[in-house]
């Protein structure tokens, strides 16, 4: 049966977390359940730059991509009732934390390295994992980023073994 939440957050929701944590999936579900505007940062950057993320990384490098992400976050400062699916590396630049917190609640989605691997192993549009598509590399990079993710988060939601509907309900229960 359709379960549609009627309450809306009075500010924005930023979904952060490692690749494959489910940010894009959960953002689309939150849009549906809470009637929010949806922004998929990776897709918007691809549209604005006219090329896929892999090509932005290959042509201009990761630092350039990180600058595009920060510029985009700054441009969101006047948004309301919007769910933003961030790229998995949004926490790499320290200033991004403040930009998210100024205009919304930051929700960290987590998943084990094994779950991440299962979810992203067939993906060809995640340049950070090109040539490193294995559980050990994923676990190592998660560990390197862990403190950054945790510092940025208002709430943390584990996603292993949960359906997108369950995860959305948990987010709504905890932030609305
Ligand atoms: N809770 C979940 N349970 C099962 N599969 C999921 C879940 N969340 C996401 N997925 C799947 O994992 C893959 C990666 O999800 P995605 O939303 O793109 O992650 P992210 O945006 O965090 O990188 C997709 O194929 C998606 O369908
Ligand atoms: O973790 C990262 O550094 C990245 C995650 C990707 O987003 P997803 O987390 O949606 O895959 C995308 O922004 C880019 O490939 C870099
Ligand atoms: Mg995504």
TrEMBL record:
Documented EC number(s): 2.7.1.71
InterPro entries: P-loop_NTPase, Shikimate/glucono_kinase, Shikimate_kinase/TSH1, Shikimate_kinase_CS
Keywords: Amino-acid biosynthesis, Aromatic amino acid biosynthesis, ATP-binding, Cytoplasm, Kinase, Magnesium, Metal-binding, Nucleotide-binding, Transferase
UniProt GO MF annotations: shikimate kinase activity
Catalytic activity: shikimate + ATP = 3-phosphoshikimate + ADP + H(+)
Cofactor note: Binds 1 Mg(2+) ion per subunit.
Pathway of action: Metabolic intermediate biosynthesis; chorismate biosynthesis; chorismate from D-erythrose 4-phosphate and phosphoenolpyruvate: step 5/7
Named cofactor requirement(s): Mg(2+)
Pfam families: SKI (PF01202)
Main location: cytoplasm
Binding site for substrate: 42, 66, 88, 145
Highest taxon listed in the record's lineage: Bacteria
Binding residues for ATP: 20-25, 126
UniProt binding sites for Mg(2+): 24
SUPFAM superfamilies cross-referenced by the UniProt entry: P-loop containing nucleoside triphosphate hydrolases (SSF52540)
CDD domains: SK
Localization in the cell: Cytoplasm
Record-linked HAMAP family: Shikimate_kinase
Assigned protein family: Belongs to the shikimate kinase family.
General function of this protein: Catalyzes the specific phosphorylation of the 3-hydroxyl group of shikimic acid using ATP as a cosubstrate.
UniProt subunit comment: Monomer.
Full protein name: Shikimate kinase
Native source species: Ventrimonas faecis
Gene that encodes it: aroK
């Amino acid at each position: 049966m359709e379960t549609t939440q009627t309450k809306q957050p009075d500010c924005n929701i930023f979904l952060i977390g490692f690749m494959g944590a489910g940010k894009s999936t959960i953002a689309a579900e939150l849009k549906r359940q809470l009637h929010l505007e949806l922004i998929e940062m990776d897709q918007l950057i691809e549209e604005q730059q006219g090329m896929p993320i892999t090509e932005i990384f290959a042509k201009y490098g990761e630092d350039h991509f990180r600058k595009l992400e920060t510029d985009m976050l700054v441009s969101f400062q006047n948004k309301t009732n919007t769910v933003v699916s961030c790229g998995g590396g949004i926490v790499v630049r320290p200033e991004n934390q403040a930009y998210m917190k100024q205009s919304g609640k930051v929700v960290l989605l987590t998943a084990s390295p094994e779950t991440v691997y299962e979810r992203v192993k067939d993906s060809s549009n995640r340049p950070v994992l090109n040539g490193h598509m294995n559980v050990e590399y994923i676990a190592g990079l998660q560990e390197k980023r862990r403190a950054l993710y945790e510092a940025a988060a208002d709430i943390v939601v584990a996603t292993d073994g949960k359906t997108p509907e369950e995860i959305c309900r948990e987010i709504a229960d905890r932030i609305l």
